[in-house]
Amino acid sequence: MPQPAPISATVDIAASPADVWEVVSDVTRMPEWSPELRRLYAVGGRTPRVGMTLIGINRRKWVAWPTTSKVTRLEPEQVVAWRTRESGATWTYELTPTEAGTRLTGRRDLPAFTVGTSLLGPVIGGAEGHDAELAAGIRQTLDLIKQTVES
């Protein structure tokens, strides 16, 4: 079985970590920037907290599917991360102060494809092809977050 590809991207934003955090920490806004995530509902409010449940609706081509995630890491103005139950992927958005503002890194950590990913793979066009789309998607997501913060 193929292994998941590493997925990570970084963008420099001309804004303070506090300003970037204000946007990134409202995880319900992720569908504004993600090419695959169509809806995201935070159970219990918009402000994330460790243990909070997130319900997502994803769409790739003609296939849509729900996901459930838990916020696993939260350090204000530094990092927010959640682990998706179905795929086993952890999505992390990390902020690092720079002289010119903030460096925002987004990544997907996935040690191995799960049974669920393997079963869904043929329906969504294969896990490996999906990895390539997710890599391009995280770049697009970060670029759109940058535009949002800087505008």
Topology:
Blueprint: E1 7-13, H1 17-24, H2 30-33, E2 37-42, E3 53-60, E4 63-75, E5 79-84, E6 90-98, E7 101-109, H3 115-124, H4 127-150
Antiparallel strand pairs: 1-7, 2-3, 3-4, 4-5, 5-6, 6-7
Helix pairs in contact: 1-4
Can you put this structure into words, describing what you see?
The chain has 151 residues and is of the alpha+beta class. The protein has one domain (7-150): Alpha-D-Glucose-1,6-Bisphosphate, Chain A, domain 4 (2-Layer Sandwich), CATH 3.30.530. Helices cover 30% and strands 38% of the residues. The protein has helices spanning 17-24, 30-33, 115-124, 127-150; strands at residues 7-13, 37-42, 53-60, 63-75, 79-84, 90-98, 101-109. Strand 4 (63-75) and strand 5 (79-84) form a beta hairpin. It is globular, with a radius of gyration of 15 Å. The mean pLDDT is 89.
Quick structural summary:
This protein has helices at residues 17-24, 30-33, 115-124, 127-150, and strands at residues 7-13, 37-42, 53-60, 63-75, 79-84, 90-98, 101-109. The longest helix has 24 residues, at 127-150.
Number of E-state strands = 7
The CATH topology name reads Alpha-D-Glucose-1,6-Bisphosphate, Chain A, domain 4
Radius of gyration: 15 Å
CATH class group: Alpha Beta
Strand order across the largest sheet: 1-7-6-5-4-3-2
Mean pLDDT: 89
Largest sheet: 7 strands, antiparallel
List the domain count as a whole number.
Answer: 1
Total helix count? 4
Residue runs with pLDDT of under 50 for 5 or more positions: none
Helix % is 25-40%
Judging from the principal axes of the Cα atoms, what is the shape? globular
Instruction: Tell me the series of helices and strands, N- to C-terminal.
Output: EHHEEEEEEHH
CATH architecture classification name: 2-Layer Sandwich
CATH superfamily: START domain
Provide the structure class: alpha+beta
Measured by DSSP, the beta-strand proportion falls in 35-45%
The rounded distance between the terminal residues' Cα atoms is 44 Å
